[in-house]
């Protein structure tokens, strides 16, 4: 699927760069263009991408400091500039636009839904969100921002692929290490999804096509991606169990939104050497996915890849009724109450500070 990526905010910019780099390293040619938009000049300077600085008048290149309403405002006032920068990048070959952002911050959180709205007004191709949800351990401001942003992004984008920051890394890592790992996993897994349908070798009936990704996302709402891989045998017959077990692992322990398995639609892409992909295994895994997700629309296809491994990549559409989302929205609501609470009584605060001085 030929895509154009627009990263909004710090996380959005970093992820967009990682996705563009992965696509280039692998020689897929799925990423047709990439642009980073931010209100913080320093964050843009870190990136090796074309950039647009928004909100210069309001925040002078210093960012919106976690204020996502301001993030939305600056994107709205400078929307023309961003749309102008995109002009010519969204070519006739482009099949979808992805707006990439961390939903817990300020610029990406507020700006991504505004940009998705503008893009949808102008372009005929689908506009998807690729949003990062804050992990449980992140502060109240992040949760509250992400709650508001998610609702708006889901409304404005044609579908929103979510990555929970608590998924795709092992526990016990520092925040920096965890981000690094998650970003690497996003680049590879979302990168493979983009590349699905771009395969040139082994073109045949069973090869996945971009339209299957788009049709899986057609139900709108929230989408999740799962991935698992294993060493393959050269003999396809011997790989039947490999495909069924990587598919189980991808769904049950490697979803970008853990446990969000109740879906409207699904797509199973099996990547590997074409001769090593077992038809029987793929069909069995696809049937199993239909049962597990309760969806009658699980598509399937191969992704020919020169690798000694076999991988199952699962895209699920319409997972918004999952418990994981309810749990997150509840957390965001609680956090929102906390952040909306009136500030502590200044006199009380003063007394506390005095006490601190004494101790
Ligand atoms: P903005 O620049 O104001 O849009 O704010 P950020 O992009 O820094 O958004 C903060 C949110 O994004 C928080 O929930 C962070 O957990 C998340 N985040 C920031 N950097 C990264 C990153 O490199 N990787 C991932 N996965 N999440 C990040």
From TrEMBL:
Identify the SMART domains for this entry: Tubulin
**Chief location bin:** cytoplasm
Q: Where is this region: Disordered?
A: 331-359
Cellular component GO terms held in the UniProt record: cytoplasm
Q: Which domain of life is it from?
A: Archaea
Q: Write out the residues that bind GTP.
A: 10-14, 106-108, 138, 165, 183
Does Nucleotide-binding appear among the keywords? yes
Pfam families of this UniProt entry?
Answer: CetZ_C, Tubulin
Q: Which GO terms describe its molecular function?
A: GTP binding
Arranged from A to Z, the UniProt key words for this protein are:
Cell shape, Cytoplasm, GTP-binding, Nucleotide-binding
Instruction: State if Nucleotide-binding is listed as a keyword.
Output: yes
Entries under SUPFAM superfamilies matching the protein: Tubulin nucleotide-binding domain-like (SSF52490)
Subcellular location as annotated? Cytoplasm
The Tubulin/FtsZ GTPase domain is annotated at 2-202
PROSITE patterns linked: TUBULIN
Instruction: List GO BP terms, alphabetically.
Output: regulation of cell shape
Q: What is its biological role?
A: Involved in cell shape control.
Family membership = Belongs to the CetZ family.
Q: What is this protein called?
A: Tubulin-like protein CetZ
- Annotated organism of origin: Halorussus aquaticus
């Amino acid at each position: 699927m030929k895509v154009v990526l627009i990263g909004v905010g710090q996380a959005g910019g970093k992820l967009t760069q990682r996705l563009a780099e992965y696509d280039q390293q692998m020689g897929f040619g799925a990423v047709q263009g990439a642009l980073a938009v931010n209100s913080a000049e320093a964050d843009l300077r870190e990136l090796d991408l074309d950039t647009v600085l928004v909100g210069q008048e309001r925040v002078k290149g210093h960012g919106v400091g976690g204020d996502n309403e301001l993030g939305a405002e600056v994107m709205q006032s400078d929307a023309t500039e961003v749309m102008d920068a995109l002009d010519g990048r969204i070519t006739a070959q482009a099949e979808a636009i992805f707006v990439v952002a961390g939903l817990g911050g300020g610029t990406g959180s507020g700006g991504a839904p505004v940009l998705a709205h503008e893009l949808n007004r102008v372009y005929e191709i689908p506009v998807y969100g690729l949003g990062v949800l804050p992990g449980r351990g992140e502060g109240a401001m992040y949760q509250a921002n992400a709650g508001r942003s998610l609702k708006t992004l889901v409304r404005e984008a044609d579908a929103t692929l979510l990555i929970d920051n608590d998924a795709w890394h092992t526990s016990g890592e520092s925040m920096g290490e965890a981000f690094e790992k998650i970003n690497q996993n996003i680049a590879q897994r979302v990168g493979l999804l983009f590349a699905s349908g771009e395969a040139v070798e082994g073109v045949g009936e069973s090869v996945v096509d971009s339209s299957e990704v788009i049709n899986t996302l057609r139900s709108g709402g929230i989408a999740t991606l799962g991935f698992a891989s294993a060493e393959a045998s050269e003999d396809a017959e011997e790989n039947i169990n490999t495909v069924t077990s990587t598919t189980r692992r991808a769904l049950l322990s490697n979803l970008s939104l853990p446990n969000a398995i109740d879906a409207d639609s699904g797509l199973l892409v099996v990547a590997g050497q074409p001769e090593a992909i077992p038809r029987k295994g793929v069909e069995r895994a696809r049937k199993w996915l239909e049962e597990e997700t309760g969806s009658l629309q699980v598509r399937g296809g191969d992704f020919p890849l020169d690798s000694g491994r076999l991988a199952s990549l699962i895209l699920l559409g319409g997972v918004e009724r999952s418990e994981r989302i309810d749990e997150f929205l509840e957390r965001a609501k609680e956090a929102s109450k906390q952040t909306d609470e009136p500030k502590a009584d200044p006199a009380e605060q003063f007394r506390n500070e005095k006490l601190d001085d004494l101790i």
